[in-house]
Amino acid sequence: MDNEVKVEKPTRPKRVKVVVVKRQGKVVLVERSVEGCLRRRTVPMSELIVGKDDYKILESVWNAGIVYGYDWETMIDLELTGADVGRAWKAAGIWTSEDLRREWNRAQMIVVKLCNPALVKVLKQTRR
Question: Which of 13, 101, 122, 124 has the most CB atoms within 10 Å of its CB?
Fold first, then answer.
């Protein structure tokens, strides 16, 4: 009995569910959520596994695909706090919920303006 050789069953390659975003020639742009973040890759159309209601590809194909887009989540470094927004809104005369409702567009533009330094930094990083 000690001479028994255990034969392991071959494991099936892992498949991952993807959403087809765009088809172009022999390649396809696919998207999937990875750890809560949307990611896109360009992969060969021939590697797309068409299911009844969805599409899948082998995880190895996903990993070998051409990355599409930037990893914004790691590039954007906001140093904006609620206190920053509150001070800016008060300086603009937004003190109450009625003020906020009435000046909704202005309140949004103030937040965008406060984020501008971080957005400019990201833009510079993408020009490299």
Answer: 122
